[in-house]
Amino acid sequence: MNITFKLFASLTDYLPLEARRSNIVVLDVAPEASVSDIIAPFGMPPKLVHLVLVNGTYIEPDKRLTHTLNEGDVLAIWPPIAGG
Q1: Angstrom distance (rounded) from CA 9 to CA 27
Q2: Which helix (H) or strand (E) holds 57?
Q3: 2-78 maps to CATH 3.60.21.70
Q4: Which residues of the chain have pLDDT under 70?
Q5: Closest C-alpha among 54, 5, 57, 59 to residue 28
């Protein structure tokens, strides 16, 4: 099944070169793949995977190992952001 995978801010460096400008990749994932399974091949340090959203809904860290997606879902990830 296909999902849209988006990485923001400094995480775009973990996308394939051709996707970094748009920050979007369409992925073909297994229906049983969890959020963590989908994220793992991109090699992002866990401390940088901060805000994880599926269709705009926050996925708690303890749910990322079991939460699966559906066809057409959007998985978006933001790193921790500091500001003032």
Answers
A1: 20
A2: strand 57-58
A3: no
A4: 82-84
A5: 5
Rounded to whole angstroms, the Cα distance separating 58 from 29 reads 20
Domain boundaries, the chain: 2-78
Rg over CA atoms, the chain? 12
Proportion of the chain in helix, strand, coil states, percent, rounded to 5: 25, 30, 45
Residue corresponding to tokens 């921790």: 80
pLDDT at 81: 83
pLDDT of residue 47: 94
Q: CA torsion angle for 48, 11, 31, 18 (degrees, to 10)?
A: -160
Strands 74-78, 57-58: parallel, antiparallel or unpaired by DSSP? unpaired
